[in-house]
């Protein structure tokens, strides 16, 4: 009986346990989705929240102008640009950069890092500045500068142009400079940069203000040294440019630094003759024996007018100079608007073969309006013997007389003045197919521009020179 009851209890417990498990299994199927819906749902959710892939920007295309301005294509999706110059990397919001000759640039577009990624660097581009245009003939000065009072010599196949210029743009701080000229394949003269060879003297010096100069080759000794080039120059201690005197300086090279010889050799007494007069100016040096015998022609100006003088000296020893001066010939068949014939601002060259001196000078009187420079130049010659006698002769014979209209200049340039004759290194005449070359100044007037002083340029003119019988 006891065994029967025990078996019955086991059956009841087993039945209860079975019903309980069945109920639990049935409760697990209350969901209305199949068992794999979690995977699908999960898959769908992952697809909906996946990150959008960022776009890489295109590399900019760089171009460089002839002036060296690098520009590159713009990209609306770039936040800025990064460029590389050599080892240097910089960023900018601009799409251009000015380069210097020889610089190489690469550029890349910078993205926002989220939607757009940086581009690759562009192809490397190098700026090569174009060769400067070759200017033949005498070049014009830079803006704010002037070139005046030329002396042009030719030594073999090389030319040297000595001229007065200003050291500072827009100022009148004169200095003497030399340009070197060489012939190109087309037989045209090409000049290099001007080089200052003598600047103004000290504040208390007689040559504080430089005016004009002439250069000549020779043999000149000073201080145990031998020099090959002599500079005769007019200067003054007055800012007005008046009461000028003439001194000397030497150099071993034509375009080298010149050493002052000392006190002026041709003097002007401003206390006796007036500080407002021009004094001794426009030196023109000739080495007549091509060694050390130098003649300096110059203009002497006082209250009576402007006249030609000359000074001779053996300059082999510059520490013992003993020069002799005399008044030159100031008459002849010349053009003049003065009551007395004058010979202002002249340049000379010596023709030893024909035994004559050739000169080019300013016409007088000068213009009545600013600037008070000459409006005409005149070429003339004289027999050498007439300089050495007091007997009256023919005087100067005019060979040519021009104004700016005859010279076919721009009509704005109304002055023609301060001319020189192209000579050899010793100041002797050179003929070019039976012609003589003249270099002269021209400039605008005050009526055209208030800055007329800085419009002074040099012009070359070739004139067929008739030889005397």
CATH evolutionary superfamily of the largest domain: Glycosyl hydrolase domain, family 43
User: What is the CATH fold-level name of the largest domain?
Assistant: Tachylectin-2, Chain A
For the biggest sheet, the summary is:
6 strands, mixed
The first-to-last residue Cα distance is 180 Å
Would you give an account of this structure?
The protein is mainly beta and about 475 residues long. The protein has two domains: about 55-125, Immunoglobulin-like (Sandwich), CATH 2.60.40; about 145-465, 5 Propeller (Tachylectin-2, Chain A), CATH 2.115.10.20. The chain is about 10% helix and about 40% strand. It is built from three helices and 31 strands. It has helices at about 1-25, 35-50, 270-275, and strands spanning about 55, 60-65, 70, 80-85, 90, 95-100, 105-110, 115, 125, 145-155, 160-165, 175-185, 190, 195-200, 210-220, 225-235, 245-250, 260, 280-285, 295-300, 305-315, 325, 330-335, 345-350, 355-360, 375-385, 395-405, 415-420, 425, 435-440, 455-465. The strands form eight sheets. Strands 10, 11, 12, 13, 14 and 29 form a six-stranded mixed β-sheet that branches. Strand 24 and strand 25 (about 355-360) form a beta hairpin. The protein is elongated and about 115 Å long. It starts with a helix and ends in a 5-residue tail after the last strand. Mean pLDDT is about 90; it is low at about 1-15 and about 15-50.
């Amino acid at each position: 009986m006891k065994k029967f009851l025990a078996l019955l209890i086991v059956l009841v417990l087993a039945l209860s346990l079975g019903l309980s498990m069945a109920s639990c299994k049935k409760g697990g199927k209350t969901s209305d989705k199949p068992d794999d819906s979690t995977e699908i749902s999960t898959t769908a959710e992952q697809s909906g929240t996946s990150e959008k892939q960022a776009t890489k920007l295109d590399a900019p295309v760089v171009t460089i102008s002839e002036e060296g301005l690098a520009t590159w294509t713009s990209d609306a999706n770039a936040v800025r640009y990064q460029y590389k110059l050599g080892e240097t990397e910089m960023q900018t919001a601009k799409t251009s950069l000015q380069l210097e000759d020889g610089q190489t640039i690469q550029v890349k577009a910078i993205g926002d890092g989220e939607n757009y990624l940086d581009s690759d660097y562009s192809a490397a581009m190098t700026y090569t500045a174009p060769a400067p245009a070759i200017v033949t003939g005498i070049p014009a000065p830079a803006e704010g500068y002037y070139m005046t009072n030329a002396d042009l010599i030719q030594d073999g196949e090389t030319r040297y142009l000595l001229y007065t210029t200003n050291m500072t743009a827009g100022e009148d701080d004169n200095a003497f400079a030399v340009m070197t000229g060489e012939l190109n394949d087309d037989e045209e003269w090409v000049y290099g940069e001007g080089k200052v060879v003598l600047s103004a003297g000290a504040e208390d010096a007689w040559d504080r203000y430089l005016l004009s100069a002439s250069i000549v080759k020779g043999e000149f000794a000073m201080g145990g040294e031998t020099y090959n080039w002599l500079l005769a120059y007019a200067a003054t201690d007055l800012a007005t440019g008046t009461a000028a005197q003439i001194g000397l300086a030497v150099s071993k090279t034509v375009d080298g630094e010149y050493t002052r010889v000392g006190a002026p050799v041709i003097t002007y007494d401003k206390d006796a003759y007036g500080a407002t007069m021009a004094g001794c100016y426009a030196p023109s040096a000739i080495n007549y024996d091509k060694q050390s015998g130098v003649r300096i022609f110059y203009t002497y100006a006082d209250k009576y007018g402007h006249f030609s003088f000359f000074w001779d000296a053996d300059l082999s020893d510059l520490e013992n100079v003993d020069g002799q001066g005399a008044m030159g010939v100031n008459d002849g068949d010349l053009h003049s608007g003065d009551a007395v014939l004058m010979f202002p601002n002249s340049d000379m060259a010596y023709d030893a073969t024909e035994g004559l001196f050739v000169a080019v000078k300013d016409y007088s009187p000068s213009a009545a309006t600013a600037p008070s420079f000459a409006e005409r130049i005149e070429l003339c010659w004289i027999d050498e013997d007439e300089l050495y006698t007091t007997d009256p002769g023919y005087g100067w014979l005019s060979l040519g007389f021009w104004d700016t209209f005859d010279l076919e200049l721009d009509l704005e340039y109304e002055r023609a003045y301060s001319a020189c004759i192209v000579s050899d290194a010793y100041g002797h005449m050179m003929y070019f197919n039976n012609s003589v070359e003249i270099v002269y100044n021209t400039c605008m007037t005050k009526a055209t521009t208030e800055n007329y002083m800085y419009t002074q340029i040099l012009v070359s003119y070739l004139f067929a020179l008739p030889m005397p019988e």
